[in-house]
Structure formats: C-alpha cells, structure tokens
Amino acid sequence: MAYQTTCCSRLAVSAEAAGVILPLATSARSLNLRRSLLSPDFPCAVAPRIAASAPARRASASPRASQSSADAATHPSATDSAESSEAAAREAAALEAAAARVITLSSRGEFERLMAEAKDKGQLAVVETTMSTLPNTQRIYDTLVETARMFPNAVFLRILADKGAELRVLAESMRCARVPSYVLFREGQRVHEDAGMDAERLRAELLYYSAEGPVLEVHSAEEYRALIETHANTDMLVVIEATLAFCGPCVRIHQTVLNLSHRMAGHAVFARFFGDSADCTRELIRDLGVLEAPTFLFYRRGELLGRYVGSGRGELVGEILKHQGVAVS
After folding, report:
1. What is the pLDDT of residue 105?
2. β-pairing verdict for 237-243 and 9-10
C-alpha cells in the first residue's frame, strides 16, 4: 500500500468540528531549542548514539609527533589488529544470528505455528511473498536479514510462491497483488501491506507498529484518563497522539515522536492510541472530536492546552515548545 501524500489521514467519524490547529511558536527564545530538536544529531530510536567516553586529545604540533601519528596510521599496532578482528567476528556473528531469524517457510503448518508463537509473545511478524526466480531475490533477502538484526523482537517469514502448490496457495492467502510484497501482523492482526521491499520504508513501519520504546500505548478511555490524572499534580507535559493502523503520515512522523520522547525525558510524557484498533478506542476518538490522524493533544495538570493536526516535523516541535516552556536538554 503506497504512502498517502497528504499530511493527515481523514477519519470517518461524525464530529461537529475539526481539531484546532494552533499557531507555531516563533519567539526567538524557542528558536534555538527548536533547532536543537530538529537537529540530525537526535538520538536514533533503533541504534542510539553512544557518546565518546573521553574528549579527543589535541595532537601535538611538532613534526616528530606528526610523523609518529602518520606512522601509527600506516602501521597499525597488534592491539588495533586484534580489536579489528574481534569487531569483524562480532559483526559476522550478529548477521548469522539475524539470518537464522529470517525463515523461508516449507509448509502452511509451519506458517501457522510460527504466527501463533509470535502472537503469544506479542511480536510483530513480517511475511514476505516472493518467488525464487526473481532477479532481486538475494538483495531482498539481505534486506530482511539486516532488518532482522535491527529489530530482534520481530519475526520474519518468507513465502516462495513457486516452491509447490501448498506454498502457492499460502501466498495467495496473503492477498498481495504483486510480488515481492510484505504484510505486517501485530498481535495476530493484519495491520499493513506494501509492494516491493524498500528497506527504509519497511523499517519505518516496523518502528511505527512496534509497542516497544518510550512512547506509551493507551488501549481505552480509562487508560487515557488515568495517564492524564497520573501527571495532574506535576508540571509534566503530556503529549497523546491519536493515530490509525493504516496511516502513511502517522508512520512518517513516528520517528520524530520517538526522538522527541528520548530527548525530552523528564520534561514530557508521550503516548498514543490507535483509534481504529477496537470499539473502545473508536469511541474515544469520537469523544475527543478527532477527525484526522495524526492528531496530537497536549495536557498539563489535567487540562487540555491544545492540539496539533498534521505530520509536519517542525510544526510538531514548535507546538511542543510552545506548551512546554522549559529548557530541553
């Protein structure tokens, strides 16, 4: 399923008024904070950046020191070589472990067993439908292995539709219009499908549908109210995103939400709920008057401060800074 090109996904609900889009914070006071939050040096949610343990030492300006540095670069020490070999061995072991988790199915029974196990463990499942004769089969397999390495708690299954009648029928049950394609399952439910195998898009979708990370998941109106009440006696900003399972703009903004939740830990709490996941969340999204996804609602001390409708990275940061009013590290 191709990404939508609009900034929001329209909801089929009958509310009288759309959510108000608040103006951006444009004061000079918040400009530097906004630039910091928009910096590409955000901590990555998949592989957090690890700071160096000590500052780099300034090299000596003497010719002898410069020559020594050049010789060291040209002739690495035995220690450097050993460390390089160990790093290569760890890399190979990690790839081998990831490859073992990308399973090429041999029967429907194996598919059903692995899917049941993933559901019981609360794991995301990626099911690829492809054919062994496709020219890019190996490249796609390598993409899955690298993705499996980045997402150790997901399950990756491959259906080769040209490897027998049973697998062909299983591939047809995925209801994919073309190959290669993949389908994502969350808690045993089909939540997304896409044609092709774009690595960046697949990983963005896995991040979005994963329940792991600092962004809390709300499953009912009771949990929604409890989250707000928990922080009603503090100055903590509570940011709750109303989202949908099938929502391209929601997928695109989720990496920013994850980064913000890391960067603003101790200053703000981030949560979300899927407005189309169950009857109780569909009722919640109607009661909140949400007409488009994603919609972000901002609370402090139990009071609704405002909302932002859309998936603009800069606009979301501006809204948060406007409601935050404190320094962000």
Report:
1. 97
2. unpaired
